[in-house]
Specification:
- This protein has 19 helices and 14 strands.
- The protein has helices at 105-112, 118-122, 168-172, 221-246, 258-274, 276-290, 293-296, 303-317, 321-324, 332-364, 371-402, 444-481, 486-490, 492-495, 505-517, 529-549, 555-591, 596-604, 609-619; strands at 59-61, 68-72, 78-82, 94-96, 101-102, 142-143, 147-148, 158-159, 194-195, 201-202, 207-210, 214-217, 407-411, 428-432.
- A two-stranded antiparallel sheet has the order 1-4. The chain has a two-stranded antiparallel sheet with strand order 2-3.
- α11 packs parallel to α15 (505-517) and α17 crosses α18.
């Protein structure tokens, strides 16, 4: 039999296994930014025979000027203590190049005004070169064309807005490595003709941005005021002449002006018989809310749809000061004052003209009456016109005034957790959306604007609500008893289409529009999606109440009102979907290019923002 086998001896103790060789650098940035060792992409801070001189292309160097602290040692060397370390406690300074930026050693050397050896780009580590390599740092990152950043200490590149003109953002924002001189906000990334946030301001004095990529000279202050005054007087005269001609019954038989007056009579009779006035009020109320989505709610729609909405929004907003007194030509506070006071001045001018005509008529007929009687008659005559102007202007005026608190924020420092201004006011800078010359916050200029805007809120939104409520309160008893008075006849614009029980519905509807177009701006910009949430809840509650109480006398007006409010609710939902899709896409693109749309589709289910908006249009 074979001899019994002896048990094997235990293996002698051996040295710990050597670490596996470093894998080649990945083609795309890994999930962990701190797992590298020398020689790629940078030195690990440990003592070794070989040390790296710079980050490789596609990465940038972060040192004491960014997130680390540097302390001078007694021997004159610099000790680097990073705030962030990897799992082994080693320092890590190389970070992947952010999207829409260029991180190459050649660009860094050129930005520093130094010559770079060709072999430095190839070797770059472990060799003593005649001239050291210049690393790409956060301040020397090359910004891509069409993008801009507010500080040399941030890695977030902002896409320059085209402002409704395709390619204008790339024309203004040329990018590059030079941030610009001290005291400027990223002017080095702008074309020589532009400056400021996203290069929206003109470098030349007394010029303003036009067509998205060109600068035009501003109107002279006296010239602009003269044009505005001329237009206002011309409007008053035109309406006065039309009203005067329409009252001439004997002119109906005249060969020249008779046919137009007869046509006007037939159109007026048709409007009264079909109840056109309440239908126009419902439609106008819908558009007044719908077309402030891109401004008040910061809605982000597909490019083609966004351009159309911006054009319609400009038409509905009635911001004619942007034509005669555009940003860059006059202070925003002056624009606020002119826009808010001019309608009041026009109404006052009409009242003075009316009082003068009334007094002249009484003097010609030898009828002796007091001036107070003339004022009372003129006020009653102009009340319908005043109510129509208030109904048209208040939502747009309220949106413009509330936007004195609406600011665009730009990061100015690197932040791993993407902190917003609400958490650290030093991490970003804000500029007024309506005027990039105004820096938001506790600056004296913005403080004065906010004080003025608060006063104008009392004058317009609050004042219009008080006016509507007071008039309806004074008419309530006469309407309930169906005994018309001079005041009820003058205020038919407010209550004629409603049942007597719900004669105050116009005041409630005005409050709804003021909240939707203006009050939601009090929600901070960094939480702008909550504006969509608030608008969705308000529209849902209002359409239910409207369907239940049925305040209109005619059934077609009731159906139209419910339908338009449902359409408005769908539009707000669609805008919130596209905004959320675009925000998610932009967020993931800022982490790694080419992943934004796929991640947005994975989270929301929509393949694109165009699909989400198309579904909304189909439902509407």
């Amino acid at each position: 039999p074979p001899p019994p086998s002896t048990p094997p001896l235990p293996p002698p103790p051996s040295q710990p296994p050597s670490p596996p060789p470093l894998p080649p650098p990945p083609s795309s940035p890994p999930s962990s930014l701190h797992q590298y060792r020398c020689p790629h992409p940078f030195g690990d801070g440990a003592d070794s025979d070989k040390t790296c001189d710079s980050c490789t292309d596609g990465y940038y160097e972060r040192r004491s000027s960014d997130d680390a602290r540097a302390r001078d040692q007694p021997d004159g060397t610099e000790k680097i203590e990073a705030l962030e370390r990897d799992a082994d406690g080693r320092y890590a300074y190389c970070y992947p190049c952010p999207p829409h930026a260029n991180c190459t050693a050649r660009d860094a050397a050129r930005g520093a005004g130094r010559r770079l050896h060709e072999d430095s780009v190839v070797t770059g580590c472990g060799e003593k070169l005649a001239e050291p390599i210049v690393s790409v740092t956060l301040s020397t990152i090359g910004v891509a064309r069409g993008y801009w950043r507010a500080s040399a200490d941030t890695d977030q590149m902002i896409k320059c807005d085209d402002r409704g003109y395709v390619g204008s953002g790339e024309a203004r924002c040329i990018g590059g490595e030079d941030f610009g001189p001290n005291g400027t906000i990223g002017s080095g990334y702008c074309d020589s003709n532009f400056r400021g946030p996203e290069c929206q301001l003109c470098s030349a004095a007394n010029h303003h941005l036009a067509d998205g990529s060109s600068c035009e000279k501003c109107w002279e202050p006296g010239e602009a005021v003269g044009i505005v005054a001329t237009i206002a007087v011309a409007i008053c005269v035109a309406f006065g002449l039309l009203a005067w001609v329409y009252t001439k019954q004997s002119w109906r038989n005249h060969r020249g002006v008779g046919p137009p007056l007869q046509l006007a009579d037939r159109v007026a009779a048709w409007c009264v018989s079909t109840g056109l006035k309440p239908k126009l009020k419902i439609l106008l109320g819908f558009f007044q809310v719908c077309f402030v989505l891109s401004t008040t709610y910061s809605a982000r729609l597909p490019k083609d749809s966004q351009k159309a909405f911006d054009k319609l929004s400009e038409a509905i907003a009635i911001d004619w000061t942007a034509v005669f007194l555009p940003p860059g030509c006059t202070d925003f506070k002056v624009r606020l004052i002119i826009l808010a006071t001019l309608p009041i001045l026009i109404i006052a001018l009409l009242m003075l003209v009316g009082i003068g005509i009334r007094l002249k008529h009484w003097h010609a007929t030898s009828e002796r009456r007091r001036v107070s009687d003339a004022i009372r008659r003129v006020v009653l005559d102009l009340t319908p016109l005043i109510l129509i102007l208030v109904f048209i202007l208040v939502p747009s005026m309220s949106a413009f005034i509330f936007r004195s608190w609406s600011c665009e924020e730009y990061p100015v420092s690197h932040s791993e957790d993407s902190r917003r201004c609400s958490e650290d006011s030093r991490s970003c800078v804000r500029f007024l959306k309506l005027d990039a010359n105004v820096q938001c916050g506790d600056t004296p200029q913005h403080t004065r604007i906010k004080i003025l805007a608060a006063f104008l809120l009392i004058l317009w939104p609050a004042g219009s609500l008080i006016l509507f409520t007071s008039l309806l309160f004074l008419c309530y008893k006469a309407l309930q008893t169906k005994m018309p008075t001079a005041l009820t006849r003058a205020t038919t614009f407010l209550h004629k289409e409603y049942k007597e029980r719900w004669c105050w519905w116009d005041a409630l509807d005005l409050l709804r529009k003021i909240v939707l177009v203006g009050v939601v701006v009090v929600v901070p910009e960094e939480r702008s999606f909550l504006r969509f949430v608030a608008a969705t809840l308000l529209c849902s509650v209002f359409v239910v109440v409207l369907a239940v109480v049925r305040p209109y006398k005619r059934i077609e007006n009731h159906v139209l009102a419910v339908g338009m409010n449902l359409v408005l609710l769908l539009v707000i939902l669609g805008a919130s979907w596209t905004t959320l899709f675009e925000s998610i896409q932009e967020r993931f693109e800022s982490i790694q290019e080419g992943t934004g749309e796929a991640e947005a589709e994975r989270l929301l289910g929509w393949p694109s923002s165009e699909t989400a908006f198309g579904v909304t249009i189909f439902l509407v």
